[in-house]
Amino acid sequence: MTWxxxxxxxxxxxxxxxxxPQLYGSDDAVVLEKNLNLEWGEKxxxxxxxxxxxxxxxxxxxxxxxxxxxxxxxxxxxxxxxDAKSKEQKWEFGYPSAYVDRYGFNNGPRCTPTIANNRVFxxxxxxxxxxxxxxxxxxxxxxxxxxDYALEQGFFGVGTSPLLEGDRLIINIGGKAKDAxxxxxxxxxxxTLWTATADGASYATPKAATIHGKRWVFLLTEATFTSIDxxxxxxxxxxxxxxxxxxxxxxxxxxxxxxxVVASASxxxxxxxxxxxxxxSHKVLWRVKSPDSHFSNMIAIDGNxxxxxxRHENGCELFCVDLADGKTKWSAETPFGRGQLLRxxxxxxxxxxxxxxxxxxxxxxxxxxxxTSDPNPRKGLLEHPTWTPPAIYDGRMYLRxxxxxxxxxxxxK
Length: 413
What we know:
By secondary structure, the chain is an all-beta fold. The chain has one helix at about 145-150; strands spanning about 45-50, 60-65, 65-75, 75-85, 90-95, 115, 120-125, 130-135, 140-145, 165, 170, 180-185, 190-195, 205-210, 215-220, 225-230, 235-240, 255, 260-265, 270-275, 280-290, 300, 305-310, 315-320, 330-335, 340-345, 345-350, 355-360, 370, 390-395, 395-400, 405-410. The strands form 8 sheets. It has a 4-stranded antiparallel beta sheet, with no helix packed on it.
């Protein structure tokens, strides 16, 4: 496939800004702001500001003009609230952290915060769960899940973001010793409402959906593709889903499209699609060895699924799969390596792992790259690795790596 590079800018949305309150925003990586102009030059969209930050892979989240950054400086995990426009710090909350990454990656938090009902919920690399007041940063309650459930550190510490579901947080915490692989926690006071499975934790955030009039939560644990009832934690079904390699991890969150749920993993696992029946049971529609998503998210547009396939940067491909049968329609190596995707109409906004920002239009049968920040992936907007998904709020895009937070101007001029 030929990658067409054309000079192109994202623009400010009409009306009230749309909050970006959790991992992948309000609607699973779909950009809800309107009238964005996907055009910029090789330098990328204009940068409004950038600041030095602590380490971590947590995505910025924004509500009512307040940007929440979860990061680590020195021996403290910090929750920092900034004005999303001006970068002015409004408050900061912190606590000690002694987490050390076993594989030499940074020691900051992996989980993205969630904002709801004027509260901020964070889960640190050592399993410290906090509820904070969004306006002041005051601590409302806290839990030490590592201690409560005798957790093992795992490969990269705690890394699955909490899922807000009604008045509870669903957390794939991996408390195998206490039959608490998955827990439901009350947002009001932090108390555990139920526990489920004896599975270890993955690094994939759960997804919730209403199917046939019933709420379900779908998640990858350390070893299974699982569906649970979020009201009581009852397991509807589990499908074995893990590599035979010990040093492997499930890290791509499931994708829900109608009554079909898709899961993918690298390390020779592949991709599976199941249909959820009215009674909550499931039927496997297809299972293939390729694509195999390592940690990138997946996007659905008009019956097709898009994502990145491949464990390593070299040889990783952007793919398009027919959701009906799992057959690959096209795949191609790209300048991005592995990346994160946002959907805007019929376009994929791509954030590659070496700081390349691009737009790929998939409206027609063959993809067309219509914008890039730089055709040379070694000269990214931010230094490698840029593994954290972008966030968009009020005509601005927020990007981070392990040391920098950048705000780009996506508004019309």
